[in-house]
Amino acid sequence: MTVSKTAAVDAAKTSRSARKEPAEATAEAAALQMGELSELLGYSLKRAQLKVFDDFLRCVAPLQLTPAQFSVLLLLDKNPGRNQTEIANTLGILRPNFVAMLDGLESRDLCARIRSTNDRRSHILVLTDKGRAVLARAKKLVASKHEARLNELLGPANRAALLDMLATIAREF
Amino acid sequence: MTVSKTAAVDAAKTSRSARKEPAEATAEAAALQMGELSELLGYSLKRAQLKVFDDFLRCVAPLQLTPAQFSVLLLLDKNPGRNQTEIANTLGILRPNFVAMLDGLESRDLCARIRSTNDRRSHILVLTDKGRAVLARAKKLVASKHEARLNELLGPANRAALLDMLATIAREF
DNA sequence: CGGTATTTGATATGGTGCATAACAATTATC
DNA sequence: GATAATTGTTATGCACCATATCAAATACCG
Fold it and tell me: Strands (DSSP E) along chain A, which ranges?
């Protein structure tokens, strides 16, 4: 595994040096053999994940939302009245790291922290009107550009099967 | 999206408070609604990737190899006589970041840099005997523990289909 | 040939994500 | 009412990723 975002794209620069064409090679720099790397699920998994995240960022670029931020907005919309610990936990974010993330969203007026009257330790998280508007626009971009592109590449049936298997791994592995 | 390694596991701590059982609830802290997050391919993709990498680390822990290190050893074995740029490129690692990585492998005597006689700028990378031995053991652990577990979870056919789709995304998305 | 551009490995540096420890304020427990 | 637990927070360190820059070596080209 490994895989970053940019690089590896120009790996093809190591191609032919401009001689022969048919079946005669003097000492070419052939493409590297991937070997059993092609059979490593984790390797393809990571490369695919980077590609998908990259496309997500491009598709939702006008709204300046990262995948993580989008997931927070989605959760806040579907689960009003929750505090930071609850939201962070279900997203797999550690509470300390969630603080700066919320600061970012709150400074953009996409959500707000409200001191709970029941438990004055916790902050109830709510979407602002602007947050709801941005989320709505983001959903449209994701559906019409991002997910649509994946559907086009794999086909609806395969896409559904892929999602199901990934969810299975995430849940039971 | 978001997803880290540990957290989110204890999200269930927010469960029932120890009252009622059938269909009567007074004000429970129910599980959060994932909403359209369940349909976001990138979200499941990342969660699955983290799980798979985590399992990989556990399975190959006796050899102290990360997924990235394993992929380098695999490539070196299948592609002798290559230099740092070539290996780094095909793995999607940026050359500057590959230096420290190689330092680590070389300091453990798993591989070695050899100045090329043709081009004295480049370092030909080779596996040491120890490197080959470690790689062989790692392959066995990965096959018998890691990949076997995925096969068991998904079934061989599904696993193959999953790998194919991930490779497609990594290649054409 | 000689000068310029390119390539290779390397260093320095900054950003981001992830993880742990520790703390004050508040609440729960007994 | 004393002690323990929880919530949000800060500080900190590590790993990964990306860019600019550099010296040495090579390629290129007039």
Answer: 111-115, 123-127
Instruction: Provide the pairing of β-strand A123-127 with A111-115.
Output: antiparallel
Q: What is the pLDDT of residues A30-58, one digit of tens each?
A: 789 999 999 999 999 999 999 999 999 99
Helix and strand numbers, DSSP H then E, in chain B = 7, 2
For residues B14-39, average pLDDT: 60
Which nucleotide has the least CA–C1' distance to A2?
A: D16
State how far residue B81 is from chain A, nearest Cα, in angstroms.
11
pLDDT at residue B30, as a whole number? 74
- Dist CA A109 CA A102 (whole Å): 10
Is residue A124 a contact partner of residue A116, using CB atoms and an 8 Å limit?
A: yes
Cβ-Cβ contacts under 8 Å, B153 against chain A: 168-169, 172-173
How far apart (Å, rounded) are the C-alpha atoms in residues B132 and B150? 25
Measure the CA–CA gap between B6 and A140, rounded to whole angstroms: 32
How far does the CA of residue B79 sit from the closest CA of chain A (Å)?
6
3-state secondary structure of B127: strand
Q: Please, what is the Cα angle at B140 between B113 and B52, to 5 degrees?
A: 90
CB atoms within 10 A of CB A167: 18
Amino acid, single-letter form, for residue B60: V
- Cβ neighbours, 10 Å, residue A31: 13
Q: What is the pLDDT of residue B1?
A: 53
What are the pLDDT digits (tens) for B141-158? 999 999 999 999 999 999
